From TrEMBL:
Keywords: FAD, Flavoprotein, Oxidoreductase. This is Glycolate oxidase subunit GlcE. Signal peptide: none annotated. It comes from the Bacteria. PANTHER family: D-LACTATE DEHYDROGENASE, GLYCOLATE OXIDASE SUBUNIT GLCE. Residues 1-181 form the FAD-binding PCMH-type domain. It is an enzyme of class 1 (oxidoreductase). It comes from Microvirga terrestris. The gene is glcE. NCBIfam families: PRK11282.1. One of its GO terms (molecular function) is glycolate dehydrogenase activity. InterPro entries: FAD-bd_PCMH, FAD-bd_PCMH-like_sf, FAD-bd_PCMH_sub2, FAD-linked_Oxase-like_C, Oxid_FAD_bind_N, Vanillyl_alc_oxidase_C-sub2. Its EC number is 1.1.99.14.
Length: 394
């Protein structure tokens, strides 16, 4: 398969325009670290942002950074860290669960709306994304947003591109708002709670005035207990005060510890990158979003029918679930659970033959599918960009 690696927007525009004219289907990629996600592409060639790298704008005083889409995420984080700043949404690194190599790109973070545990406080990647440049399926260069947050009338192309998985356009540059790195991080660990008790505790923490930046529960293998994690970040004095108040709030729980330093960072990285489930062999991995109070119900529903392991993030609103990869990888059970309790399930990891026959994303209603087709046709009338990556026939 031919791989195009344009060096700038002009190259990109020419490649896409020619592809549209010839009907050449293009696989849109960065460095390929998330290639095993989504439905398998049936494409003729690939277009990669790997050669489009570099910071194009960084103004620490304005808390804003712009980079070409192929810029490694690690480079962006390194530049920000030198000024004591960071991407606030704590983007996940999928390489561990997908078994891929290479350097994840900042364009993929925007295109797939990738976030981590801090989303409960800072919002998703799309909430920090304030500007994009991209080439649509006609080969036209489009710019939307800029260096400041502002009200938008009409179609907000910045938010539309976030999470579009390269189906609407090839991102060439992205602009994010950033935040100062916290001075201190501390995690309150409550041990021995079952799923329902843990979600109740996390809900209490998130409903408190103490600015929780991480809220997760890691059940034990026997599902009768586990570790409930509540993270605080900020100035040292502030973290001390808020941690003491949280301990008072949870004084009825006997087994509590405070975790800091390298151990705490490694634990939250394992939550962020879902490495907790990577020892599950070649099992399928699902990402389920639901109301936090419904998380235990969804998990129990799945456990009744499947050999499943799971943990909770976002206060219970995000479940990572591993299931056997044979058959439909548990799709019928997961879809029934989201219909019953609300939410949506995305198949993140499974063999190609499974992903090619299933709805990888939560099936849409007829009305939403009609809208999705209309938007796709507006941006990519020839249907050449990542066809079928999200939904069959689109």
């Amino acid at each position: 398969m031919t791989t195009h690696t344009p060096r700038d927007e002009q190259d990109t525009s020419i490649i896409i325009r020619e592809a549209a004219k010839k009907g050449t289907l293009l696989n849109v990629a960065g460095n390929g670290t998330k290639a095993p996600m989504g439905r398998p592409n049936q494409t003729d060639a690939s277009i990669s942002s790997a050669a489009m790298s570099g910071i194009t704008l960084y103004e620490p005083a304005e808390l804003v950074i712009s980079a070409r889409s192929g810029t490694p995420v690690l480079e962006v984080m390194r530049v920000l860290a030198a000024k004591g700043q960071e991407l606030p949404f704590e983007p996940m690194d999928y390489r561990s669960i997908l078994g891929t190599r290479g350097n994840p790109t900042i364009g993929a973070i925007a295109a797939m709306n990738i976030s981590g545990p801090r989303r409960i406080m800072a919002g998703a990647a799309r909430d920090s994304l304030i500007g994009v440049r991209f080439v649509n399926g006609r080969g036209e260069v489009v710019k939307s947003g800029g260096r400041v947050m502002k009200n938008v009338t009409g179609l907000d192309l910045v938010k539309l591109m976030a999470g579009s998985w390269g189906t609407l356009g090839f991102l060439t540059e992205v602009t994010f708002k950033v935040l100062p790195k916290p001075e201190r991080m501390a995690t309150l660990v409550i041990r021995g709670l079952d799923d329902s008790q843990a979600i109740e505790a996390l809900s209490m923490a998130l409903g408190s005035p103490f600015d929780v930046t991480g809220a997760a529960h890691l059940p034990d293998r026997d599902r009768r207990g586990g570790s409930t994690l509540i993270r605080l970040e900020g100035f040292r004095v502030s973290v001390d005060y808020r941690m003491n108040e949280l301990k008072r709030l949870f004084k009825r729980f006997r087994f509590m510890d405070i975790l800091e330093g390298v151990g705490a960072e490694a634990l939250w990285q394992s939550v962020r990158d879902v490495t907790i489930l990577t020892d599950q062999g070649q099992r399928a991995i699902w990402r389920v979003s639901t109301a936090p109070t419904k998380g235990p119900d969804v998990a129990a529903h799945v456990a009744q029918a499947l050999d499943a392991q799971w943990f909770y993030d976002w206060g219970g609103g995000l479940l990572w679930i591993s299931t056997p990869a044979n058959g439909d990888a548990g799709a019928s059970v997961l879809r029934e659970a989201t219909r019953t309790y609300g939410g949506h399930a995305t198949l993140v990891r499974a063999p190609v033959e499974v992903r090619s026959t299933l709805d990888v994303f939560e099936p849409q209603s007829d009305a939403l599918m009609t809208l999705t087709r209309g938007i796709k046709a507006s941006f990519d009338p020839a249907g050449i960009l990542n066809p079928g990556r999200m939904y069959a026939g689109i």
